[in-house]
Write a structure and sequence with these properties.
233 residues, alpha/beta, Glutaredoxin, five-stranded mixed beta sheet, two-stranded antiparallel ribbon, 9 strands, 36% helix
């Protein structure tokens, strides 16, 4: 009897450690972004604790894009544009009273070699050459968002633009989907959000934050509108 009780107590403690002490997605998201504050010129940002971010895989994102409903954010903590966008996106999420944003981290662990996307470079003749392949799941995302994504273009040292002949999932990208139909899409921050003379992305001004927030709020409110069922609503 004593051994049985000890066994049950042990099982209970193990379950507690696995489920009770695990980080929630909201905490994980906050820690991942804030952990890079001030690292290698990364912008210092503050992420709200109750951010309602839910991590999903590429395959889960593909399911939403094909036939389900949800708002997806594709980004990564080490991306300067993502760091400018995220606090504004979360503020807009709160204002629009959006329940959940699904998150795909395109560069897990902030390591370039773990980036889920493929990679091209220019060869000695100035031609685009694939140097890293991506998974089938990534290419499925490109197909689902083919009408929305921009071309994957490289720039030579001389400033010449060279197309890879492929689309690119840039970060940050926010997509609102209803029953497999994209009804809202925004890539990057703003065209006016430029690099400084040293090649670093500038912080958003108060007016730029207001403009970007307005874009996100419009997407989220459109998503929440029960009468909105396609991109033309």
């Amino acid at each position: 009897m004593k051994n049985k009780v000890l066994f049950l107590v042990t099982i209970f403690l193990l379950l507690f450690l696995v489920t009770g002490c695990g980080k929630s997605d909201a905490v994980k998201f906050k820690e991942e972004y804030e952990s890079l504050n001030g690292v290698e010129n990364a912008k210092s940002i503050s992420i709200m604790k109750d951010n309602n971010i839910k991590y999903i895989s590429l395959d889960e994102a593909k399911e939403i894009l094909d036939s389900k409903t949800g708002v997806i954010y594709f980004g990564t903590p080490s991306c300067a544009w993502s760091r400018n966008a995220v606090p504004v996106m979360l503020d807009a999420m709160q204002e629009a009273k959006l329940d959940t944003i699904y998150y795909v981290n395109v560069r897990p662990d902030n390591k370039k070699e773990n980036d889920i996307r493929d990679e091209y470079t220019l060869d000695s003749r100035g031609k685009a050459k694939k140097t890293k392949d991506a998974s089938e799941s990534y290419y499925n995302i490109l197909l689902s968002l083919a009408n929305n994504l921009k071309e994957y273009v490289l720039t030579s040292d001389a400033g010449k633009k060279v197309s890879t002949g492929e689309k690119r999932l840039n970060t940050p990208t926010v997509v609102a989907v209803k029953n497999g139909v994209v009804i809202g899409f925004h890539e990057g921050t703003l065209n006016s959000n430029l690099l400084d003379k040293d090649g670093n992305l500038t912080d958003l001004t108060a007016d730029q934050e207001k403009e970007l927030k307005s874009i996100y709020v419009k997407i989220f409110e459109k998503y929440k509108d029960e009468n909105c069922t396609d991109e033309n609503c």
